[in-house]
Design a protein that fits this description.
This protein folds into 2 domains: about 230 residues, TIM Barrel; about 90 residues, Lyase, Ornithine Decarboxylase, Chain A, domain 1, CATH 2.40.37. Helix 6 packs parallel to helix 7. Helices cover about 25% and strands about 20% of the residues. The chain contains 10 helices and 15 strands. The termini are close together. It is α/β, with parallel strands linked by helices and about 350 residues long.
Amino acid sequence: MDVLTSPRFELFESDFRRNCRYLKDIKDATDCTILLALKAFATPALFPVISEYLDGVTASSPFEADMGVIFGKAIHSYSPAYTNDSFKHMSGISSHMVFNSISQFIRFGDKVSENVKIGLRINPECSVVGTALYDPCRVGSRLGVRAEELANVDWDQAPFSRISGLHFHALCENGAGELARVLDTIHERFGDVLGRFSWINFGGGHHISKPEYDRAQLIRLIRDVQTRYNLEVILEPGEAVAIDAGHLVCQIEDILENNGRRAILDISPTCHTPDVLEMPYRPTIIGAGAPGEFEFDYELGGISCLAGDIVGMYSFPHKLQVGDELRFTDMAHYTIVKQSNFNGIATPQITVV
């Protein structure tokens, strides 16, 4: 085993298997296709484990598509806008190519090989996501084709006759109830054309691996679409594969007093956990509580020079010391894939345990 350093990501194989078994249960109950969304988690060390359960990956860039080759199964590609170079690279190794707009489809559709399935992303215009930054269906969204844009499409004539499926992505950390609302809108706005296709992709954002997720309802929703339209149903979760399956381990490098206790860590939120600043949210630390919950409150800050590189306020039952180790939980998804070297800060070690 490699010598463990700080900071580091510890990824727990047993927890990845737990999450994947939940997904495999959905597959077995419905005969649907489930893919790993690489934008959420793309660490090859776990690909042999995940590929035991899932059918392939979804990619949105040439680099992700190349990661799909490493994964070794189907590659479904989608991009808000392909460039000439990215399209050429991705279409050469993908099983499915999904276009974000009619204009992108017109530009590239006739260059897609006959053995590659073509899809079109639709925007159901049904917002169920609470944070605007992550809402693909917010007013003015650039993601997907609205129903009114398809009103005059002749699906029997080229080039539209090449389209074999539709894709939507409307969720972010949502349950089956929110998916039901989105599907109700899709039945209403796109139901008249769904029967002509052979597959539909429900996108990601499904919290399938969470204990409170209603997996029985998801199974019913999938079966309903399969029966109603005779469609292959595809899901592409990312977070559900990696949720609660990894820690970010760091240590305290300095403690100072300035209108309260402040500790500087050897990690940087802006480099290593950017969703803490972007979402924003307050990650859990093992053994720590909310401000005032324990005797000693500390503001935890990062090691970069950015003034706002702050994790948040936490309380501890004892005074912290330089060299103390802290463990942030649920740090596998949307962390490793979003690392940066701002301020010249190195990325943490990754280890599978």
